[in-house]
Amino acid sequence: MSLKDILTKLAEETESFFLYNANGSHSPASLLNELSESKLSIRSHYQPGLYIAEINESGYLGAVLYRVKK
To answer: pLDDT tens across 12-50, in order?
Structure first.
């Protein structure tokens, strides 16, 4: 699943929350509009209520891209 797929799904949910990283807090919808296509195409995993992490070439979780902030 790509980061774009995850953000699209989260943007459609009724529960509002923010995702944050070193650059601050963002809504899923704003990230969809701000991130480049190359960033949105990163294979990612969403752990509900905790984080979005990238999936590396070996299929394992890599760096945490965003943490959930309620």
So the answer is: 987 788 999 999 999 999 999 999 999 999 999 999 999
- Cβ neighbors of 25 (< 8 A, separation 6 or more) are 18, 19, 69
Global pTM reads 0.91
Contact 2, 52 (CB under 8 A): no
What stretches of 1-70 show up as alpha helix (H) in DSSP? Answer: 3-12, 28-34, 37-40
Neighbours of 61 (CB within 10 A): 13
**Distance (Å) of CA 5 to CA 21, 22, 28, 34:** 19, 22, 11, 15
- 37 CB neighbour count, 10 Å cutoff: 7
